[in-house]
Design a protein that fits this description.
The protein has 129 residues and is mainly alpha-helical. It has helices at residues 2-22, 30-33, 39-42, 46-94. It has a domain at 1-9 and 55-87. The protein is built from four helices and no strands. α1 packs antiparallel against α4 (46-94). The protein is elongated and about 105 Å long. The protein starts with a helix and ends in a 35-residue tail after the last helix.
Length: 129
């Protein structure tokens, strides 16, 4: 569906650009550009109403397709995020966690055997590491 909406969006964008460029400016219009014979076809209010309506319709379709494409993109993002969270939960369940906290680091001057906690400093000891 996203491909179809994208094609419609691009087509409407191109038509909207063409319709806006065809509209007459404040000074004159298409009627004055091609001479007096075409003034009846493009001049006055005849072309203005048709082009104004076409602009409004194209703008409405453009906005609808824009919102549709944005919604489609955000829903795909939500689905990807949900899958990533599910995989993270599965990964956390599969790995064993440590039950005991890590032992504190020994002071630089003393060596402790592996697996034994470091000795506590003496109460009268004023040495700072």
């Amino acid at each position: 569906m996203a491909v179809f909406v994208t094609i419609i969006h691009v087509f409407v964008c191109l038509v909207l650009m063409g319709v806006v460029l065809l509209q007459q400016g404040k000074g004159g219009g298409m009627g004055s550009a091609f001479g007096g014979a075409s003034a009846q076809v493009f001049g006055g209010s005849g072309a203005g109403n048709l082009l104004t309506r076409a602009t409004a319709i194209c703008a409405a379709v453009f906005m609808i397709t824009s919102v549709t494409l944005a919604h489609e993109a955000s829903s795909q993002d939500r689905a990807l995020r949900q899958r990533a969270e599910e995989q993270a939960k599965k990964k956390d369940k599969g790995t064993p966690r440590e039950s005991a906290p890590a032992a504190p680091a020994a002071s630089p001057g003393t060596a402790t055997p592996p697996g034994e906690p470091a000795p506590a400093p003496a109460p009268g000891d004023t040495k700072t590491p």
